[in-house]
Amino acid sequence: MSLAALQSSMEAAVIVAAAPIKTVGLGMAIDGRPILQDITLEIGRGEFAAVLGANGAGKSTLLKVIATLARSTEGTLELFGKTVGRDSAELRRRIGLIAHQSMLYRELTARENLLFFAKLYGIAEPVKRAELLLEVIGLSNRANDPVKSFSRGMVQRVAIARSLLHDPELILADEPFDGLDAPSVAATEQLLRHLHNSGKTILLVNHDISQSLQLASRAVVMRKGRIVIDAAAQSLNASQVLIEVSGA
Amino acid sequence: MTRSIQQISLLVGKDLRIEARSRQTVGLVVVLGVLIVVVLGLGLGAQQGGAGLAATAVLWTAYLFSGVLCFEKTMGVERADAALAGLLMAPVDRSVIFFAKLITNLALMLCVASVVTAAGVLFFSFDLSAAPWRFAGIMSLGMIGFAAVGTLFSAVVSSTRLQGGLLALTVFPLALPLVISSTQALLRIFRDGEDMGAQALAVIIAFDVIFLVASWVLFEWVLEP
After folding, report:
1. CA-CA distance, A127 to A12, in Å (whole number)?
2. What pairing do the DSSP bridges indicate for beta strands A218-223 and A33-43?
3. Burial level of A38, CB count in 10 A (0-12/13-18/19+)?
4. Could you write out the DSSP letters of every residue in A156-193?
């Protein structure tokens, strides 16, 4: 093996082993008001981390920055070992984003939405992939109905299917349980567990502390844009986190 | 390149399909355009106006207001349910999104303009038969530049909280060179029976080129989820 080939394979190995998320001193300010301050965080491959905090703590902003949808004003962000720059299209291909807003077109049917995004991602067999995911979320029988006719829970299932179309390695979930009824919450929890068990890295932003501590293996607690706790979820209890979240 | 063209056609197809289903834009915009022609026509005494300044100015006024409504609606589709975030998460270049939106806006505007122009021709007894293709050419060229500006600023304005009316305030002054040049060109053709004039045509083409390039470059920086 030539030296160049060896070096190239070593670089590839480093990228494969690199943490899906690594931030160093990440900061963000809007109109001089700090939203994120000195966020240093590393989420390893296959981890399930929950970001907790009160409203305005910076959880969703952090997720937006990691999703490359917002730009930090300080520090660095690495995804899969690559520094995020202006052109992050290839990195985004490895990320699936679930949010409380569906990111779907309500006039289009569930099938049309999934096919549209599958083709946009350049998936090899878009029809097959869309049909498979419709089956997984249990909406094959409603595939030709417009999304606007769906209940909130059904919309969220389609939104999750959309985020999984390109089989991402990293799932970012921003308040995915918002506005869901109990059965839909249970189904979404089960799906997130299943994704974690299948090796996906998950970063969940959630305001429900108890639920997050049960689901995730790691808890990152934020207050006023800073990380105040970063520990194994099992080592924390909800009331302890609540005190930290509220800053009491 | 091929991938970009595929993505543009996919995005335009999606936008037109949504429009065909919802009929939110064209229906509303056609009514607005025709209303402008009728109201201004009545106010200016249209039947006596003939092919003069009033007819071309009124048509441009109708195109401008209709266009702004088109831009707002087509960008609004992306804002609803944060669909734009989904789009930006996909491996799609932002210039692809710009050209797709531009083509959608142009298609809708031309569709609306055909109805509004017909209304203007009838209402103002505006005889287009002297130079129908030159009329269509000048207006289409004007609309390309106007759609480029409108597509760019609709992305800017839609990400602010000051949406109502702000787009018109930003786009109308910018479109002024287009309106003046194309109106002058049309007056020379239809009122004076002369050639359109190289200067007016040069201004329209220069406007199109400058704003197409500028909007394409800037779109990447203004498109925020």
Report:
1. 32
2. unpaired
3. middle
4. HHHHHHHHHTT--SEEEEESTTTT--HHHHHHHHHHHH
Contacts of B89 in chain A (CB under 8 A): 67, 69, 92, 95, 97, 103
Per-residue three-class SS string for B150-213: HHHHHHHHHCCCCCCCHHHHHHHHHHHHHHHHHHHHHHHHHCCCCCCCHHHHHHHHHHHHHHHH
**Contact (CB, 8 A) for B153 and B71:** yes
* Spatial CB neighbours of A77, under 8 Å, sequence gap ≥ 6: A21, A22, A23, A26, A65, A66, A83, A84
Min Cα separation B173/chain A (Å): 29
Are B10 and A116 an interchain contact pair (Cβ–Cβ within 8 Å)?
Answer: yes
Q: Has residue B152 got a pLDDT over 70?
A: yes
Q: Which residue has the higher pLDDT, B99 or B222?
A: B99
Q: Measure Cα distances from B7 to B13, B14, B213 in Å.
A: 10, 10, 20
Chain B from 97 to 126: CB within 8 A of any A CB = none
Of the partner residues A89, A101, A122, the one whose CB lies closest to the CB of residue B82: A101
Calculate how close chain B gets to A124, using CA atoms only, in Å: 13
The pLDDT score that the predictor gives to residue B54 is 76
**Contacting residues of B for A146, CB less than 8 Å apart:** 21
B18, B92, B225: residue with CB nearest A107: B18
Distance of CA A17 to the CA centre of its chain: 19
B89 to A67: CB separation less than 8 angstroms, yes or no: yes
ipTM value for the complex? 0.86
Give A143's contacts (C-beta < 8 A, 6+ positions apart). A109, A110, A111, A131, A134
Q: For B23-61, what is each residue's pLDDT tens digit?
A: 878 888 899 999 998 888 888 776 555 556 678 888 889
**pTM for this prediction:** 0.87
* More reliable by pLDDT, B74 or A237: B74
Q: Does A119 touch chain B (CB under 8 A)?
A: yes
B122-137 pLDDT per residue, tens: 888 878 888 889 999 9
Cβ–Cβ gap B90/A92 under 8 Å: yes
CB contact under 8 A, A92 and B91: yes
* Residue B123 near residue B46, CB atoms below 8 Å: yes
